Amino acid sequence: MGSADVVTETVWEIEPHTKAKHEILTRYLDAWFPILASWSERVLFIDGFAGPGSYRSGEPGSPRLALESAKGQARFLRNSNVMFLFNEADPSRFQLLEEWRTNGNGAVPSNFSVLTRNQQFVDLAGEIVERRGDKRLVPTFAFVDPFGFKGVPLALICDLVRDRRSELFILFSFNSVNRWITHEGQQGNLSELFGCSDYAQADGLGPDERKRFLADLYERQLREVGQFPYVSRFEMIEMRGRTSYFLYHCTRSLKGLEVMRSAMWKIDPTNGSQFSDRVAGIEPLFDATFTLDLDKLLIARFKGQTVPIKVLQDFVLTGTRYAPAHLKKETLKPMQERGLIECIGQKRKGTYPEGVLIHFL
Prior knowledge:
By secondary structure, the chain is an alpha/beta fold. Helix content is 42%, strand content 17%. It has 2 domains: 16-279, Rossmann fold (3-Layer(aba) Sandwich), CATH 3.40.50; 294-360. The N and C termini lie far apart (50 Å). The mean pLDDT is 92.
């Protein structure tokens, strides 16, 4: 439930980019809970910085949203043990969170377990990792949404979600990192955050290059240290126009990548990668998603080849910024009309079901 910069109040107003973050989270969880339940009899959701559970005007925080998402998928989860671990280090916020857990979360299915902890996240994560030892943890979705960058060591977090079916949704507090990156007293925290000292190379770079370097470095470390082949990134911009933070979703599942990519495109139908408080509540100028270069990317990769539709779907996910939903109606259909592709096994023009082969001329 956190934000990029430190908040001192027990309960605070929700910002537009936080609402966008929560929409991405809930869209993903609505699909993730049934998927994980099909893989395992036990599922764990960890919220490492849960906050008080609600915002000042009553909007639900991430713990409430996660629980409500699971309740909405209860019919798919009836044969699973669904566990929630909500952690909040601040005593005043924890008290409100605990009050909600005991009095305000409504009827909870009997196969759901809701636990709360009042610890520093780094201590909680270390405790879980130590108790588990070499054993596999149940499939876990860890939501790590801190204030600032202290106490979120990359190596420990990656160890927490090392099981191949576990996933990580983590906030990288770029604005805070950018302010403190050369401060002598923060080098230990920064080294733990990145899991390396390469961040120091950002010193002296121009603003845009520095932001790109740090965001790319953090993504590289998530891929390499966490052994996550699929990492999606989303930028949050505050009202003054500066980047507040980046969200990273890390998964080892193509299906997980597809669901998160689709959720991010719902928030940003132009690029699928950014939200700004400046445009919150403003209707987009265009209804259609821009997919102006997906056809060019497909031609560059597959020219002269004949490939199944599944190969194209996987390429869109792993080789472009787009979602599979952009492939058929928005890209292949216009390409076929322009004579850029031929379709083998197609029963009706403009449709591309499984089994159809696409030949790129």
